Amino acid sequence: MKRIYVIILIWLVSFTGASAQSLEHLLDSLSAIYSFSYEKMEVDSNFTSKYLLQFEQAVDPDSPAGQTFRQRVFLSHKDFDAPVVFITEGYTAWHAEKPDFTSELAGLLNSNQICVEHRYFGTSVPDTLVWDQLTVAHAAADHHRIVQVLKNLYKGKWISTGISKGGQTTVYFRYFYPEDVDISVPYVAPLNFSTEDQRVYLFLDQVDSEECRDKILQFQTELIKNKAAFLPAFEKLANEKGLTYRMGIEKAFELTVLEYSFAFWQWGYFTCNDIPQDFTEKDSIIRHLDKVAGLKWISNEGIEELQPFFYQAMREMGFYGYDITPFKEWISFTKNPTFEFTLPEGVHITYEPELNEQADCFVRHEAENMIFIYGANDPWSAPAVQLTYHTNSIKMVKPGGSHRTRIKDLTEGQQKQVMDTLSRWLDH
Question: Is the pTM of this model over 0.90?
Answer without folding.
Answer: yes
